[in-house]
Design a protein that fits this description.
The complex is a heterodimer. By secondary structure, chain A is an alpha+beta fold. Chain A is 31% helix and 19% strand. In chain A, the strands form 4 sheets. Chain A has a 6-stranded antiparallel β-sheet with strand order 11-16-12-13-14-15. Chain B is α+β, with helices and mostly antiparallel strands. Chain B folds into 2 domains: 221 residues, no CATH class; 152 residues, no CATH class. In chain B, the strands form 4 sheets. A 6-stranded antiparallel β-sheet of chain B has the order 11-16-12-13-14-15. In chain B, strands 1-2-9-10 form a 4-stranded antiparallel β-sheet, with no helix packed on it. The chains are: A alpha+beta, B alpha+beta. Chains A and B meet through strand 2, strand 9, helix 12 and helix 13 of A and strand 2, helix 14, helix 15, strand 10 and helix 16 of B.
């Protein structure tokens, strides 16, 4: 994205949401990514029919979770974004820092505390580097790539935590979240690119973050490597889940738990298990309402609204006819968030864990003051145990996936953490 | 479902493309098409082995309720210019004079309020007095109009075991005796179109619900895909994406190829949205609405992204432009269209999956959308007897030709 400081107030807020979870996920190690690369031949997505041999697949064990939902068996999978979607993904320009309406003396005083070298500080406070908002009072600094690359992790964290307070710096508030650095050696990326990745990453509350992804692009050697880099940054774990026949041991609890799905009778599904002795389990997709049934574990494509986001996904969970008010109109995502918040306030009530099937799990920025009320960042749908169905940001490179709630929380490396609340639809 | 609007009005126009092509198609019998024995519990496909698990399932409560509501009173739709024209047509049917007089008395006729033709409300007593041969004859004739759903898609008793199940489920013997008497034979089984007679003679909704539930129970297959058996990744991806024409399942397939358990994955997890939503289910609206065109619309979703289901005329044009006849071997996403030997009564299609497996709406009264073996489809409906399936393959994205104006 090409941005001028005058455009900063108008930085597409959607990127804050779109990009908030672009990061890789902590729960999947870089080791796994490398294993993927080594076990599966690198076949173009449009590969013609051929005799490419299969390597032995990775052996994955089922996990089992029992509760009022019956017994789930889960298997982790790694959903890879389509190459076409990754090609469309553009990294945001982060060489312009907005300090909002902070005065220059205050900015300089702040930078003096940032543990910068003399040369770094000299460049940052040089008048030629200053940017001034055109229509509104915004002070900013334009940096060189070299300076941005040279920041120490400590300085970067200190500065980025402040920048995160200003809405123009969306990627500083919600950076990519990466697997731990230990796995970088095994990434299928050239050494210079790996080194730049290490230089630019920093830890916020123990979570490895990356804000300046665009600065990595000059280190990329070819289009394939760029796709690999993007895939690493946005890769999406999910689960396939089956409801096993052990669920028959608690038929009443089971039937009650899934009965919030009005469309399909959980009694009927339980009867299939009861009457089919050879059947180990049924895929979760049978137990979901029509909207999540259709979109689970897939990327937005021609069939789904291209701007499908977390709000649309969570608030239409039980809908017979999806309500499109939760999509960002004219690409203005904060309006979608505003409509989602209004809907939570008017049609839902707050509820505590244990959550129930279809509850909306809402992610807010920390409690501020009257001038800075908590901001709704994300919503997901509770499925069972600790699993939510989540569309982590807008964009067709992020799927509608099943993830543990804690892992989704860890993807929001917002300074000061985030607040998670559960909501249930009013009867 | 969004495509019901207007379906009852189109009576087969959508799929007249198929009829147009029918003479050109190589139509094969089921046994000739698929070397696989129906007794085998797996199918080998270019995308891996499908292992069939035997399951038992029955219609959802909401569908049973919808059936009870829709078909407890009998109405016939007769789309002819006059009652006289119909009577002339009915003269060719093997009906006793008394039956003719009792059923087609003018006092039961009224002009249709939402289109051409008439609505007939036949008296229950006269329906109940028909002989099995008369029922078969008359109901076959009435099935030419898509509004006559109990005649087009009767309740089917494929095996004697269904009656045993009904008895074991506590359905009173007099009820079962009457139900048997109201059946008419076809193929190796029996069909029942006169649920309305049962509803009037045995007005206990609980018994009627229980009867429908047990009657709708089928033993069928649930396929699991064993990707470990796939010969190549490229071939597997190409197969399940209809040669990359409908690639939505590709990320899921790639993920499964990387990390597969030995017991595979339920096939439904890589199926299109419509198949996922419909599997094991029938929408309450589907119970009383026509589903002939829906069978084509749903089937076409396997090879390409869904079209605007509300605009049936546009679908008609699009389908005719983009799906062309193809000979065996079929591949995933081909639409298999029913061709009957003696005049088309039902326009019906299913989606070819692999081996002898299709995704289809079980073509009976309370039939669910599900995976079926092709031979089972042919054997299920009285109007399918002697029929065969012909393949139509998606050719790629093409706009429909502009409408010709006179």
């Amino acid at each position: 994205m090409q941005l001028s400081i005058s455009a900063l107030p108008f930085v597409l807020y959607q990127w804050r949401l779109t990009r908030k979870l672009l990061g890789g996920f902590l729960l999947v190690s870089a080791c796994q990514v490398t294993t993927v690369s080594s076990t599966q031949p690198n076949i173009p997505l449009t590969a013609p029919l051929g005799a490419t041999s299969r390597a032995a697949p990775k052996s994955i064990e089922w996990e089992y979770r029992t509760g009022p939902w019956g017994t789930l068996r889960l298997r982790e999978i790694n959903l890879k974004a389509p190459a076409a979607a990754l090609e469309r993904l553009q990294f945001t320009e982060t060489r312009m820092w907005s300090f909002g309406s902070m005065s220059w003396p205050k900015i300089q005083a702040f930078l003096l505390e940032a543990n910068l070298s003399e040369s770094q500080l000299a460049e940052l406070v040089h008048p030629d580097r200053r940017l001034i908002g055109k229509d509104t009072l915004i002070n900013g600094i334009e940096l060189s790539s070299d300076l941005l690359l040279s920041l120490s992790p400590q300085s970067r964290l200190y500065i980025y935590n402040l920048l995160a307070q200003f809405p123009e710096n969306s990627d500083h508030a919600l950076p990519f979240v990466l697997p731990d650095q230990a796995g970088d050696e095994q990434l299928d990326l050239n050494p210079a690119l790996r080194e730049a990745l290490i230089k630019l990453s920093y830890y916020r509350s123990g979570i490895r973050c990356l804000t300046d992804a665009k600065l990595l692009v000059p280190f990329v050697t070819d289009a394939d490597e760029l796709i690999r880099l993007k895939r690493f940054l946005v890769h999406s774990p999910s689960y396939t889940i089956e409801i096993t026949r052990e669920s028959l041991l608690q038929p009443e609890e089971f039937t009650r738990y899934w009965s919030r799905n009005q469309g399909k009778s959980s009694r009927n599904l339980l009867r299939i298990l009861a009457d089919s002795p050879d059947l180990a389990g049924l895929d979760l997709v049978h137990f979901l309402p029509p909207v999540p049934q259709g979109i689970l574990n897939r990327f937005p494509d021609q069939e789904l609204p291209p701007s499908i986001n977390c709000f649309w996904t969570a608030f239409n969970f039980f809908s017979r006819n999806p309500d499109h008010q939760f999509l960002p109109l004219y690409d203005v995502a904060d309006q979608a968030a505003h409509r989602a918040l209004k809907t939570l306030e008017t049609r839902f009530f707050l509820t505590e864990a244990p959550y129930e099937f279809g509850d909306v799990i809402a992610f807010f920025t920390p409690q501020g003051d009257e001038r800075n009320p908590p901001e709704l960042l994300h919503t997901a749908s509770f499925i069972a145990d600790d699993i939510v169905m989540t569309k982590n940001g807008a964009g067709d490179f992020k799927p509608i996936a099943l993830m543990p709630l804690d892992h989704v929380v860890s993807l929001y490396a917002y300074p000061g953490g985030i607040e998670v609340r559960g909501y249930r639809q009013r009867p | 479902m969004t495509f019901h609007r207007g379906i009852s009005q189109i009576h087969g126009r959508t799929l007249n493309y198929f009829l147009r092509w029918a003479g050109l198609l190589v139509v094969s019998s089921v046994s000739a098409l698929f070397a696989q024995s129906p007794d085998e519990d797996f199918a080998d496909t270019p995308g891996g082995v499908l292992e069939y698990q035997v399951i038992s399932l029955s219609a959802p409560d909401a569908a049973i309720e919808a059936y009870l509501k829709a078909f407890s009173v009998r109405k016939w739709s007769i789309v002819m210019k006059s009652r006289g024209a119909f009577l002339g047509y009915a003269m060719g049917l093997e009906l006793r004079a008394a039956s003719r007089e009792a059923l087609f008395n003018p006092k039961y006729w009224a002009p249709a309020s939402d289109g051409p033709g008439f609505i007939v409300t036949p008296p229950t007593a006269a329906l109940g007095a028909l002989l099995p041969a008369e029922r078969r004859e008359l109901y076959h004739a009435l099935a030419r109009w898509s509004g006559n759903k109990p005649e087009l898609w009767p309740l089917v008793f494929a095996h004697e075991s269904v009656w045993h199940r009904l008895a074991a489920a506590g359905i009173p013997p007099p009820f079962l005796e009457r139900a048997r008497a109201l059946c008419y034979p076809f193929g190796g089984g029996q069909a029942l179109s006169d649920f309305s007679v049962l509803a009037e003679e045995f007005p206990d909704p609980e018994i009627l619900r229980r009867f429908l539930e047990v009657q709708s129970t089928v033993t069928t297959v649930l396929p699991r895909l064993k990707l470990r058996t796939a010969k190549s990744i490229s071939e597997t991806l190409a197969y399940w994406t209809s040669n990359h024409k409908n690639p939505f399942a590709q990320p899921m397939l790639e993920a499964l190829l990387e990390s597969e358990t030995s017991d595979g994955v339920e096939l439904i997890s890589i199926m299109p949205s419509s198949a996922r939503r419909l599997s094991f289910d029938i929408e309450p609206d589907d119970v009383s609405h026509e589903i002939q065109s829906a069978s084509y619309i749903i089937s076409s979703n396997f090879a390409t992204t869904p079209k605007n289901l509300q605009d049936l005329d546009a679908f008609d044009d699009w389908f005719g432009t983009n799906f062309k006849p193809v000979e065996t071997p079929y591949r995933y996403g081909d639409v298999l269209a029913l061709k009957q030997p003696t005049g088309q009564i039902i326009n019906y299609a299913c989606a070819f999956v692999g081996g002898d497996l299709v995704f289809a709406r079980d073509p009976v009264g309370l039939g669910l959308w599900r995976f079926m073996r092709l031979k089972e489809v042919i054997d299920r409906n009285p109007h399918f007897i002697g029929g065969a399936f012909a393949g139509l393959r998606y050719q790629g994205l093409k706009a429909a030709p502009p409408p010709q104006r006179n």
